[in-house]
Amino acid sequence: MACGILPEDVVREILVMLPVKSLLRCESVCKSWYTLITKPSFTTAHLNCSVALERNHCILIKRFLKESNKSVMSFLSDEISGDDHVSPIEITIPHSNHFLQMLGPCNGLICLTDHRDIILCNPSIRVFKVLPTPSLNYPQGLFSDTIGVGFGFDPLSSEYKVIRIAQIHEDDDDGAGYVFHSVNVEIYNLNTNSWRKIDAVVPFVWFFPCSELLFNGHFHWWADDEDHGGESMLSFHISTEVFQQIRLPDVCAFPDGNERAFLVFNESVALVLYNPSAQASFDIWLMTEYGVAESWTKLFTIGPLVQVEHPLLFWKHELLLEKANGQLVSCNLKSQRLKEFQVYGAQESLRALVYSESLVSIKRGSDIN
């Protein structure tokens, strides 16, 4: 199809149906196609088309490779099969380690963080941006450590936000520990490329693998519940920037030897309670009414599973997990039969997201309107 033969609106309707990989090639066909494809309005139309048609959905896997000392992201097709071809995308990430978290996705963007560096990335077009270090000043002798990171898109202001929850502390006199002072919240706006502090009183946030979740315009963390003497899911509304604490089921009593994961199951928030061991079981709880603590309902238990340690992602009728040796496996929710993938990483380094590709550029933070 040569440039100029078809009207621009017809060309646009054809191009908007193509996958990102094909569109990147089409940018080189002619100047008019490049101009069309790089317009923010086309990026929005392409993303909306992908969502409406539920196309290009895949599973994005992050793992850390010890032998090469780097993190690798891989795409799996939407039909889970142990024989699937896995195509690795290698991204050089500063200070990369196997604890690197993968948050999102949001309009094709993801957030990568080791709770020191924070990076925004679009795996579809293989671009990333290291965020500037928060420059907020604290009194002499006080230090700031990141304990929680969140990421999402604000449709009201058309901007992407990164939330940083930090504990403020000072070293004690003998240097053997530190004295806790408070928890602060800072927000990064992609459009302005800057951080700002917001006034919010939030509890202490705990980290475990897959304990941070973006869902329905809110970001969530596992946190203390000081008012009720237990645990909570801390929720942050991306647009209103308001926090809410949602109590976890009464069976949660930290420390109890169990770990927690927040996943999405049947379009609701699910809590997975498990104890990594030689034969681990996974209790699945569902919050049937969002934001209502009393709606937590235990659905079922998976396992015990031999040498399977961490849940990663619910996908259709499967639960993806990481084995003790760092191998990716899936468990059928009905038969509870395991299926192995030829995908390995350093122990506890695997993360997984349901991903849909996009053209959204990190350099053009306001692509989506």
Order of helices and strands: HHHHEEEEEEEEEEEEEEEEEEEEEEEEE
What is the averaged pLDDT score?
A: 83
Q: Can you tell me the number of structural domains?
A: 1
Shape: globular
CATH superfamily: Kelch-type beta propeller
CATH architecture: 6 Propeller
Would you give the CATH topology? Neuraminidase
Helix content: under 10%
Domain F-box: 1-47
Protein name: F-box domain-containing protein
Pfam families: F-box, FBA_1
Organism: Escallonia herrerae
List keywords for this structure.
369 residues, mainly beta, five-stranded antiparallel beta sheet, four-stranded antiparallel beta sheet, 25 strands, globular, disordered C terminus, F-box-assoc_dom_typ1, F-box-like_dom_sf, SCF_F-box_component
Overview of the molecule:
- With 369 residues, the chain is mostly beta strands.
- The chain has one domain (47-356): Kelch-type beta propeller (Neuraminidase, 6 Propeller), CATH 2.120.10.80.
- The protein contains 4 helices and 25 strands.
- It has helices spanning 8-15, 20-26, 31-37, 40-53; strands at 57-65, 70-76, 87-90, 101-106, 109-113, 118-122, 127-130, 143-154, 159-171, 178-189, 194-198, 205-206, 213-215, 218-225, 230-237, 243-247, 259-265, 268-274, 279-287, 296-306, 308-315, 318-323, 327-332, 338-344, 351-356.
- Strands 12, 13, 14, 15 and 16 form a 5-stranded antiparallel beta sheet that branches.
- Strand 10 and strand 11 form a beta hairpin.
- The radius of gyration is 22 Å and the shape is globular.
- The two termini are 30 Å apart.
- 35% of the residues are buried.
- Residues 364-369 have low confidence and may be disordered.
